[in-house]
Amino acid sequence: MVVKSVLYGSGSSKHVDAMNGTQLVDVSRLCGTGVGMPEAFLSMWYPRNAVMSSKCPPVLHLPSVGEQAHRLSVLSQTFIAAFSQQPQFFSRAPGRVNLIGEHVDYCGYAVFPMAVEQDILVAVATNTTGMLNICNVDPSHAPYSCDINNFEINKERPSWYNYILCGVRGIKDEGGMQSPFIGLNLAICGNIPPSSGLSSSSALVCASALGMSYAHGLSLALDTLAEICGRCEMHVGTQGGGMDQAISFLATKDTAKLIEFNPLRATSVALPQGASFVVANSLAPMNKAANSYFNCRVMECRLATQVMAKRAGLPWRTFQKLGDLQQALGKTLPQMISMVEDTFEVRPYSKRQVCELLNTTPEELNQVSLSENTRHIQEFKLHDRALHVFSEAHRVWEFKKVCEEGGPYALLQLGKLMNDSHRSTQLLYECSHPKLDTLVDLSENLALGARLTGAGWGGCMVALVEDSKVEQYKEHLWNNFYSKESAAEGRARESVLFSSHPGSGACVFVK
Question: Is 244 among the catalytic positions?
């Protein structure tokens, strides 16, 4: 499976979109222009001599055929029924599957995701009321309205529209505009399975931020949008690391990405030929913003960082990430693994013991180290969490090295790295789920390797499978797992078990 980069330049007026064969509108002409905006409104925000970024999200003509064209048509009908007007444009952001590198992005380490073809679509039009009005094609998601210039995001009551508010808030805070924002009507649809570990929530944030940005004539580069969305999702209470938002904006069709942070950068990597990735939904949903499991792991990594920093004679209060500590110490990842073994016992540490190691008080620990929704936790597994992060970060670079070097055993080596990754998330990070473990165990004889993908505690598994065995493998999982799951009854097979090819990143669709 060769992964190649598809780049959209701005040197000519039209380009062909490799995703669906439609033409791209000239990015240099339209990227920063609010479609259908009054001329006077545009002049407030968008200087006529402004220089367009060639790295803006691509602006494409609406597809006229295929599944996405049908979904956009249904979304338009919902929009018209709700707001009695036509949408002026559509924003799109894909979900993702992380091939390896789980729970390391928020520690400052590289990850290896690809965008999936499933996505979130947002229909957008301006209004003159100053209100942000939101509806969803799915009637189970209640509509919501608020003042676009004055709203709060309630972290205590998780709601689907909170992720939209995060995207809008991100552009409000960091998009570079000072005057009041114009009102927006938004209609949403998506085919990313929710709570499946394929980043439906982050895709919703990204699509909403892109819609907000484009409607107001902002010319924001892809990496800028990714970083804004990585930060603004914290308004909903999730202490993530930026991987989901980065791949949603920076993905290119047929391209997997090695994504590094600080500064954000993405490298296309060619995968060995002869195998495909199969994504299997465990049917165990997990909303990482609705509980403290995810944020607890973030804090455990932070505490491990600070204890290791203090032991090394560094000012521990200034360190937040294991990656920053490694850089300050000038050590390799294997050396950091040895340092974990030298620093921690393989046992949980009480909050009191952590305070003793740092020579601080519980009050200071709450303020300096712990997030609001983790201050109640009284026990932390510092050895296991840090050991997972450093070993998983090392596996990411080993994965890239195998891809670049190739050879007759490359696929087997990649599969072993994926298997090792799953065992680490299962035993050290404790973020797996019995159903995920069952899927991984069922994959043993037919897949080259398999692992959970996403935050875990449910969601999806990704497996590397030889092309000649993909259909046999999917049939094996269906017969031995899904046929026994009541949650799979009545669901289309491809909605829970599908082969995935690297998809394209966020874009805007115009008529």
Answer: yes
Beta bridge partners of 114: 97
- 3-state DSSP assignment of residue 470: helix
Cα 84 from Cα 96, distance rounded (Å): 34
pLDDT of residue 99: 96
The residue count of the chain comes to: 511
Place of tokens 């295929």: 66
Tokens standing for residue 47: 């200087």
Task: Convert 29-68 to b/e letters by CB count within 10 Å (16 or more is b).
Answer: ebbbbbbbbeeeebeebbeeeeebbebbbbbbebbeeeeb
Torsion 202-393-326-430 (CA) sign: positive
List, in order, residues 6 or more apart from 358 with CB less than 8 Å away.
Answer: 306, 307, 310, 316, 365
Residue whose C-alpha is closest to residue 117's, from 192, 48, 36, 32? 192
Query: In the structure encoding, which two tokens stand for residue 188, read together?
Result: 């949403």
Tokens 């402004």, located at residue: 50
Residue among 17, 105, 119, 244 flagged as catalytic: 244
Question: Hey, how many other C-beta atoms are within 10 angstroms of the C-beta on 151?
Answer: 16
- The segment with the largest mean pLDDT, out of 12-26, 165-179, 231-245, 316-330, is 316-330
Closest CA to 257 of 111, 422, 101, 410: 111
The rounded distance, in Å, linking the Cα atoms of 101 and 495 is: 25
Per cent of the chain over pLDDT 90 is 75
Determine how many CB atoms are found less than 10 A away from the CB of residue 138. 12
User: What's the CA gap between 133 and 139, in Å, rounded?
Assistant: 15
Tokens (6 digits) for 226: 């990714």
Q: What share of the chain is helix, strand, coil (3-state, %, to 5)?
A: 40, 20, 40
Q: Output the pTM of the full model.
A: 0.82
Tokens, residue 304: 């491990």
pLDDT value at position 288? 56
Q: Output the CA–CA distances (angstroms, integers) from residue 161 to 61, 135, 144, 184, 201, in the order listed.
A: 27, 9, 7, 14, 10
Sheet holding 449-453: strands in order across? 449-453, 460-466, 275-281, 497-500
Peptide bond into 57 cis (omega under 30): no
42 has a pLDDT exceeding 80: no
- Residue 206 contacts residue 248 (beta carbons within 8 Å): yes
Range from 11-20, 251-260, 307-316, 489-498 that averages highest in pLDDT: 307-316
For the chain, give the longest Cα–Cα distance: 66
Please tell me the distance from the alpha carbon of residue 121 to that of residue 34, in angstroms, as a whole number. Answer: 18
Report the alpha-carbon distance of residue 351 to residue 33 in Å, rounded.
52
Q: What is the pLDDT of residue 113?
A: 95
- Over residues 330-356, the pLDDT tens digits come to 999 999 999 999 999 999 999 999 999
* CA separation for the pair 501, 504 (Å, rounded): 10
